[in-house]
């Protein structure tokens, strides 16, 4: 654990760089290695403690994070001016680190809402879901009518509209349509919705009847459909939609919380706006919380395939079987092809904000991002928005784009999301609550209205990763029991519904 007065943080004996815990002025004597800083080093950035020749690998976490593009000397600031991505092959020793889970019995509990089919919810919403962007405005008008009008329904968390930018101008079948329908279906079936009203236009490519047939959905007491063209336009559809929701509110309000096992928790693990501290504070702390969740019988979903690129060997070593590991590598190969056919490369990441925070290459970012997955065995790999049925740690193939990734996790069944950030994110999520974890205390204080957890205590040596992980785990249980997150208090989450769009738009 870093000491409170430490100037830098070293993560592994084999590392060529250390992380500046505080701003280091030019000429300052480095306590690690004994060199003087050749220039000012911003907090969260890397400084060399050993010489690295041009073209040689540079290590952090004991792993290669890139290759020197110039000779690096002790005391040099190591960043985009002298470090770059470079490809190399990892050995995949499938399952070498897979271990039986040390289960906790009896498992922890929370106050959940048990649906008639046995599924457990952490929230109790009514949803209005658009089949196509063309029906988004009508869906929004229906949901907006109920804002501030639910005083007589205290057990209903809200009426929310989930709208998106696609559903037409796309191929009627294929990868893009499959992903969209999986994302929509996963939300229609989500236990955090008491009932759902689907609103279609009538002439869209994503025809509601065809979608329902494909997904084996049928209108029922908990699933209703309105077609704008059939109803006679905007005003008539909005009026009909309001009447449908009003009729559903009493049944939704009848829901009550009861004590249930933590095995019913499915938690999405997300990071966004990462910085140099992400891989040493919030991400490993969330990983420790994920380990606790798995030990108590729950499920954790690690995602963002482009952001485990270069760290996939750490996950394949934890795969429950060779088949699971190979499935993960197949998704990596899909992404390499996907990037190539769109004229891009996976090392386009990190983002400008990530680089300003001290991250230099996708290899460095991935090693830190993978820490969110903790240390338990990887049980399964899922494609985007597929229903998650395995328990324990699983991986879902998603983009690194935060809102698109979280949309897939929630469609897969996540009834709570934990989101780490070092630069500051203001995203929310419905119908699943989102807990925000700040990687450093400066950010937590600066954006306290958005941040739920301060993980800067790890950086400052006030708390171990394990202690922070236990604190996060207990907050997960409290949040699942109804405690509101900062993003919920701000009313965020509807606009962040964002299914992954792939393929041509016609």
Can you give me a brief rundown of this structure?
Helices cover 29% and strands 18% of the residues.
What can you see in these coordinates?
- The protein has 15 helices and 21 strands.
- The chain has 506 residues and is an alpha/beta fold.
- The protein has three domains: 1-84, Archaeosine Trna-guanine Transglycosylase, Chain: A, domain 4; 125-254, Rossmann fold (3-Layer(aba) Sandwich); 259-489, Rossmann fold.
- It has a seven-stranded parallel sheet with strand order 17-18-16-15-19-20-21, sandwiched between helices. Strands 1-2-3-6 form a four-stranded antiparallel sheet, with no helix packed on it.
- α2 (175-188) packs across α11 and α6 (282-295) packs across α14 (465-480).
- It is globular.
- The N and C termini lie far apart (54 Å).
The CATH architecture of the largest domain comes to: 3-Layer(aba) Sandwich
- Gap from first CA to last CA: 54 Å
Give helix % range: 25-40%
- How many domain modules? 3
Q: Tell me the Rg in angstroms.
A: 24 Å
Q: What is the mean pLDDT?
A: 96
Unreliable stretches: none
* SS summary, helix count: 15
